Each structure stands twice: as C-alpha cells, then as structure tokens.
Amino acid sequence: MESRALESATRLAPWPQRRSGVVTCGPCSDRATIPAAVATLEDLLVLDVRVGTIVGARPLRGARRPMLALTLALGALGQRQSCVDSGGRETGDDLVGLQVAAVVNLPPRRVAGFDVDAQILAVNDLRGESVLLLPERPVEDGVGLARGLEAS
C-alpha cells in the first residue's frame, strides 16, 4: 500500500520526495507534507457514490450505540438499507424525504442484526454527532458522483 501511494504521488507531481514515511510534494515541501498513504483520484472513482432519498427510518434495536436503520430509494438501483448514528434523534422521522449521498458498492454487512448494503456519507459535528452529507439541490435518485474530475 505504501509503495502504491508513493507511485501515485509520483504520477501526480513531478517532484515528490520521501522522507521518513512522509511524501513531500512541490516547492513548498519544507512547509507541507502529505501522509504516505495518499489516495489517488482512481481510488476515489472506485467508489460508487449515489444520491438517494430516505424513504424509511426507525431506531435500530440492539446496536451498541443509538443508531437508525434507514431505507434509501436509489432510482433504477432500487432500495438499499443503511444505518447511521441517531444524532440525538428518537425516531428518524425528520430524515424521511431527505436526499443523501451513499456508497453502494461496498460488501454487505450486518449491524445489530440489520443487513446494510449502502453506506451513507456523514461527518461528525463538534459534539461528535453524525451530520449527513446532502446535495445542495434536489437531483434524480440514483445519480452518481460527478465524473468531471477525471479530465483534470
């Protein structure tokens, strides 16, 4: 993995140098460093990120921490199941109807007896609660990650 990251950094910048486990790039290499495990654009594009609408939400009983089981409508991909930290919500009813971003090509897994086949993207706020990543405006369910990045 480490050599792959170094090869990727070499392709992206003509002047990377390796110093004690860190890849440094560019004329500002004395000021800025990039961890040796750098992901490439190709790594990102392997993930199938789609937008879907939450059509169902319920508390996930038996989870180690408060979680919600969610059903996503993903257009032609059909419905997928996911779960997220409850974020202090009792039922998750306020999430129904929201569009969210989710990775849909990860292996299925079981969480507290619930089959999960999509991973909703979220970040943690300052209190450590999950905040879902939402598109800035409505889009068609099932639409994928913008591929305009590839031309750069």
Q: Which sequence of SSEs, written as H and E, runs from N to C?
A: HEEEHEEEEEEEEE
Arithmetic mean of pLDDT? 79
CATH topology of the largest domain: OB fold (Dihydrolipoamide Acetyltransferase, E2P)
CATH top-level class of the largest domain = Mainly Beta
Question: Whole-number radius of gyration?
Answer: 19 Å
What's the main sheet like? Answer: 5 strands, antiparallel
Distance between the termini: 24 Å
User: Can you give the helix content as a percent range?
Assistant: 10-25%
What is the overall shape? globular
The overall strand count is 12
Q: Could you say how many structural domains there are in total? A: 2
Which regions contain 5 or more consecutive residues with pLDDT less than 50?
1-31
CATH superfamily of the largest domain: Nucleic acid-binding proteins
CATH architecture descriptor name of the largest domain: Beta Barrel
The number of helical runs is 2
- Record the strand order, biggest sheet: 6-5-4-7-10
Q: How would you portray this structure in words?
A:
Residues 1-31 have low confidence and may be disordered. With 152 residues, this protein is mainly β. The protein is globular and about 40 Å long. The chain has helices spanning 2-12, 41-46, and strands at 17-19, 22-24, 34-35, 49-59, 67-73, 79-85, 99-103, 109-111, 114-116, 119-120, 122-124, 130-132. 11% of the residues lie in helices and 34% in strands. The protein folds into two domains: 2-45, no CATH class; 47-132, Nucleic acid-binding proteins (OB fold (Dihydrolipoamide Acetyltransferase, E2P)). Strand 8 and strand 9 form a beta hairpin.
